[in-house]
Amino acid sequence: MDIKEIIKPENLVYKKTGLMTDNPLSYCPGCGHGTAHRLLMEVVDELGIVEDTIGVAPVGCSVLAYDFMNVDMQGAAHGRAPAVATGIKRCWPDKYVFTYQGDGDLAAIGTAETIHACNRGENITIIFINNGIYGMTGGQMAPTTLPGMRTTTSPYGREVEMMGNPLKITELIAQLPGVHYVTRHAVHTPRAVRKTKKAIFKAFEVQKEKKGLSFIEIVSNCNSGWKMEPVASNIWMEDNMFPFYELGDIKIDGQLVTK
């Protein structure tokens, strides 16, 4: 069959959104960041809001997000993305504003900005990538590191008595009245990807309707930081991360979900 026949629109199963640039991703092979980027840009593209969308990326593995996502982007100091997003949204209330943050950024140095932006109910969307470790700076223990999990700063495993319990920041902010929609998903399987994309759609609809803040946690792997092959890291994530960070909706339409 002629190649021109094969690539006819009716024969295409998938086509990359034009909102993802052609720049090679800087993420490690097997990392979930690339998939999360793609889903976010697919939603913006399909909603037709590219001209009205502004993203904020702070320090972390996603610091170069502006190289990959072809929308207006603003950099922020480490942990300060919700504060920057607040300023942007208040200046341009009709724009769609999102932050894209890792767990070390959002739940450690940025805890104050996260909590207060959520408490105020800023009409923005926060995308939170949780891989339980500091991926960019050397694999140190993060607030989300599981008990017993080894990192470069907890080489014998996280000791709760000494280092405290992992912080379930998503459940914490779900208690705040300013937060309208809170959910937790993953991107390691086709089924999980579909659910995550649906959640991102809903978050932008919430922002359009000016109902308050939406918070989407994406539990992901860090095969480099975890010292595992990509497939093994996904299996470890299913066996260890998901039981602690349970996937699913936590708050819908301003109401906590009863499980």
Q: How would the global form be characterised?
A: globular
Uncertain regions spanning at least 5 consecutive residues: none
The largest sheet has its strands arranged as 2-1-3-4-6-5-7-8
Name of the CATH class: Alpha Beta
The topology string of helices and strands comes to HHEEHEHHEHHEHEHEE
| Number of DSSP helical runs | 9
CATH architecture descriptor name: 3-Layer(aba) Sandwich
Q: How far do the termini sit from each other? A: 53 Å
The average pLDDT score comes to 94
What would CATH call the homologous superfamily? Thiamin diphosphate (ThDP)-binding fold, Pyr/PP domains
Taking the sheet with the most strands, its summary is: 8 strands, mixed
Number of strands: 8
Strand-pairing-aware structural class = alpha/beta
C-alpha Rg (nearest Å): 18 Å
Strand content: 15-25%
Any idea of the CATH topology?
A: Rossmann fold
- The residue fraction in helices comes out at 25-40%
The number of domains is 1
What attributes characterize this protein structure?
259 residues; 8-stranded mixed sheet; 35% helix; single chain; alpha/beta; globular; 9 helices
Provide an overview of this structure:
35% of the residues lie in helices and 17% in strands. It has one domain: Rossmann fold (3-Layer(aba) Sandwich). The chain is built from 9 helices and 8 strands. It starts with a helix and ends with a strand. It has 259 residues and is an alpha/beta fold.
Brief sketch in words of this structure:
This protein is of the alpha/beta class.
Describe how the helices and strands are arranged:
Blueprint: H1 3-6, H2 33-47, E1 53-57, E2 72-75, H3 81-91, E3 96-102, H4 103-109, H5 111-120, E4 125-130, H6 160-163, H7 169-174, E5 179-186, H8 190-208, E6 213-219, H9 230-244, E7 248-252, E8 255-256
Parallel strand pairs: 1-2, 1-3, 3-4, 4-6, 5-6
Antiparallel strand pairs: 5-7, 7-8
Helix pairs in contact: 2-8, 4-5
